[in-house]
Structures are given as structure tokens and as C-alpha cells.
Write a structure and sequence with these properties.
The complex is a heterodimer of chains A (114) and B (112). With 114 residues, chain A is an all-beta fold. Chain A contains no helices and twelve strands. Classes of the chains: A mainly beta (114), B mainly beta (112).
Amino acid sequence: AQSVAQPEDQVNVAEGNPLTVKCTYSVSGNPYLFWYVQYPNRGLQFLLKYITGDNLVKGSYGFEAEFNKSQTSFHLKKPSALVSDSALYFCAVRENTGGFKTIFGAGTRLFVKA
Amino acid sequence: GAGVSQTPSNKVTEKGKYVELRCDPISGHTALYWYRQSLGQGPEFLIYFQGTGAADDSGLPNDRFFAVRPEGSVSTLKIQRTERGDSAVYLCASSLQGNEQFFGPGTRLTVL
């Protein structure tokens, strides 16, 4: 069965600095990996995904993520954080076996300080 | 176009009562998912549909929970004999063939 771990409950970063939100996964076979963001009082929004191909994927709002198969990781990154990036971030995984069951991590709260 | 909608936005019920939560997915999305999210936690998978059929209901916590999608569009999550532990935000999402999911605003269920 697939699983996702987000080891940090909260990440604090100063505006303008690079940010990383960590995610590791466990899945049989090749994974489909996703990042979603949840702003206060708003629904979950898709940020980016890895299906196949280039290990570095780019998404919305300047975010990118790097797929590392050997480390089973899919860390979310942004070169320069904005205060408006402060939100709850979720990593998600599904198996590439024909089913669409998707498992989400517990979430990491990103706090960007001005 | 319209996004995923869920009704009601809030539902307060008494322990032991029956509730129905409705989800209207994005038109043309074949996959529909239900999740439960407790405060400070990630979405917990409950069930997903591919078309009209429940493709995977392994996340439903017990037989008090049931979901249907009779015409392959709108879905209803049904909870019988509600318990206080069922209180959470119930999220619905839809997608095209298992790609990125589009989430509704959720239904906040409170069981007194």
C-alpha cells in the first residue's frame, strides 16, 4: 500500500529566501506524485505533478519539485519565498497500477516571515 | 467553467442521525473522490468512483458509510447512525483519468 511522509509539521523561512518542503513516499512500482496547497478558508489547489520524464517539474506560483527515485523523495521548492506563500502544503501519491486511489501526507505548514 | 461544488457547506446533526452529503463534480470528469479531513490533518481517502462504479472503497471506515454515483456525475456520501467521531470536513474532488484532482470547498459535519 502506498504511503506519504511529510517529516516537518512547520517550515519557517524569511521572505526572499529559498524554501524547501520535504516529502518521501512508499509505493509499489512507479509513482504518480502531486503537491497541493490549502490557503486559509479555501479549498485544496493543485500545484504540480510528476508522472514521468524530467525529474524536475515546474508548477504554479513559481514552485517546482524534484523527483528522486533512489531516495523516494519529492521535495517542493521555490527559489524566493513570498509572504503570500504561507499556507498548508500537502504531498500526495498514487500507484501507477491502473487504480486512482491517492494518499495524502499530513501536511506541512509554511510560514514566510516578512 | 464551474468547479466542484458540495452541499451543504455545513451540517449539524445529532448522534445517531442519518446524513447525506452531495458532490457535483466538474462536467466530464470521470473520476470522483471522497476524503475526510480532520483539523490539522491531511485528507484521508475514503472512496473513489470511476464512472458509476466504486473502484476502491477501502478507505470507508465501517459499514455506516456508503457512497453512490448512479449516473456517473453527482455523488452522495451517506452516513448512518452518526457518531461524534464522524465530525470532520468531508471533501470531494474530481479528475480526468486520475490526474490532478480539483477539490470542492468541503462540507463541515458536526455531530453533537
